[in-house]
């Protein structure tokens, strides 16, 4: 009987991402350079609902994915025969949306004779830290702030990834989205608050910060969200309109200050000197500015991916798969295997370790 797996020879990888409301495809060359990175947003689909509608997201992926993948291949200037594999997000995410990407990848892999590598979405975000800066240290702390996730990880050179702390309730991204709804801003909430906050005073309103013990690496944003709700109830409609920018700036500052403080505390207690901040919230301009300032003062090297790699994208998915394969993960030999390389649950609860190469 032939072996079930064969060693991987470095060749270009196609990445596919469809976990939520972006349909994305990207191609990395054999050395890990991004040849193309195509993203189709669904903001116009979900904007009128104030949030993502799972069924509509899945339908939009079905109508878009072939065009996006084809566009990525055309931009890269490659043919299907040039690829060494297809990487696809297999979780976590919206079930229907994930199915579109996984089934498309498997069908494409079968038709082209290419192996399909499943990638955990959070592993993809972590891999984005090295997309624009391959020399960034592999031994570091990583803050993942994406969608429903606010997680601090200790990333080690051998690929182990240990969860140091996470949110007890709302993630930072959810706090931004819910705060934006209360302030009457458009979807998506994070960028809307970021834009409005630039016109306001971040010290105008004293919103609470969740610190508990300063050495504890957990987050909570439910109290902040409630505080904003009560503050708005106290204001007349006219006053709310007048102070909307100050409200946005102060609310944003409360979120950002906690993210920065906890991240730097994690670095201090982990015996490393590097911090990567990844995920959609890492695009926030105030977070990027404060992190850069505080990290420089503390002598910490920081990785803040370019904005194109902050939100959901397929370049990070291909990069995560490439890291796995270079680290010796087995390459499926079957052209249409139901056994992908990773599990959607591969990131373990707090105090457990998981492998991320």
Q: Could you describe the 3D structure shown?
A:
- This protein has 357 residues and is of the alpha/beta class.
- The chain folds into two domains: 5-127 and 310-349, Nucleotidyltransferase, domain 5; 137-304, ATPase, nucleotide binding domain (Nucleotidyltransferase, domain 5).
- 40% of the residues lie in helices and 19% in strands.
- The chain is built from eleven helices and 13 strands.
- The chain has helices at residues 43-46, 54-76, 95-112, 121-127, 172-182, 189-197, 222-234, 237-242, 244-270, 285-298, 315-326, and strands spanning 5-6, 13-17, 22-28, 34-41, 85-91, 116-120, 140-146, 149-155, 160-166, 274-278, 301-303, 331-332, 353-355.
- The strands form three sheets. Strands 11-10-7-8-9-13 form a six-stranded mixed β-sheet, with helices on both faces.
- Helix 6 (189-197) crosses helix 9.
- It starts with a strand and ends with a strand.
- The model is unreliable at 334-357 (pLDDT under 50).
Global geometry: globular
Total strand count, please? 13
Any idea what the radius of gyration is? 21 Å
Order of helices and strands: EEEEHHEHEHEEEHHHHHEHEHEE
- Average pLDDT score: 89
Would you state the CATH class of the largest domain?
Alpha Beta
CATH topology of the largest domain: Nucleotidyltransferase, domain 5
CATH architecture of the largest domain: 2-Layer Sandwich
Question: Count of helical segments?
Answer: 11
Tally of separate domains: 2
Low-pLDDT stretches = 334-357
Widest sheet, order of strands = 11-10-7-8-9-13
What's the name of the CATH homologous superfamily of the largest domain? ATPase, nucleotide binding domain
Termini separation: 30 Å
Strand percentage? 15-25%
SS content category: alpha/beta
């Amino acid at each position: 009987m032939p072996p079930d797996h064969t060693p991987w020879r470095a060749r270009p990888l196609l990445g596919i991402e469809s976990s939520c409301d972006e349909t994305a495809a990207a191609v990395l060359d054999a050395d890990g350079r991004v040849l193309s990175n195509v993203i189709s947003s669904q903001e116009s689909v979900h904007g009128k609902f104030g949030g993502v509608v799972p069924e509509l997201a899945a339908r939009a992926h079905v109508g878009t994915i072939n065009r996006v993948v084809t566009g990525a291949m055309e931009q890269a200037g490659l043919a299907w025969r040039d690829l060494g594999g297809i990487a696809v997000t297999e979780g976590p995410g919206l079930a229907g949306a994930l199915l579109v990407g996984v089934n498309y990848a498997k069908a494409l892999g079968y038709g082209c004779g290419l192996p399909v590598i499943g990638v955990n979405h959070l592993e993809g975000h972590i891999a984005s830290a090295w997309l624009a800066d391959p020399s960034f240290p592999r031994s570091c702390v990583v803050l993942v702030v994406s969608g429903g996730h606010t997680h601090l990880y200790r990333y080690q050179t051998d690929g182990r990834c240990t969860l140091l702390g996470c949110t007890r309730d709302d993630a930072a991204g959810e706090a931004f989205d819910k705060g934006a709804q209360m302030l009457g801003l458009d979807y998506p909430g994070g960028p809307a608050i970021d834009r409005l906050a630039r016109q306001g005073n971040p010290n105008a309103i004293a919103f609470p910060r969740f610190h508990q013990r300063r050495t504890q690496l957990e987050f909570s944003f439910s109290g902040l969200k409630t505080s904003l709700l009560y503050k708005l109830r106290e204001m007349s409609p006219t006053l709310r309109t007048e102070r909307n920018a100050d409200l946005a700036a102060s609310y944003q500052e409360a979120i950002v200050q906690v993210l920065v403080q906890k991240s730097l505390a994690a670095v201090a207690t982990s015996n490393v000197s590097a911090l990567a901040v990844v995920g959609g919230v890492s695009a926030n301009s105030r977070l990027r500015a404060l992190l850069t300032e505080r990290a420089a003062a503390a002598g910490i090297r920081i990785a803040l991916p370019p904005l194109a790699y902050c939100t959901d994208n397929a370049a990070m998915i291909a990069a995560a798969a490439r890291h796995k394969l270079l680290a010796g993960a087995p390459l499926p030999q079957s052209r249409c295997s139901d056994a992908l390389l990773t599990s959607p649950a591969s990131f373990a609860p707090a105090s457990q370790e998981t492998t991320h190469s």
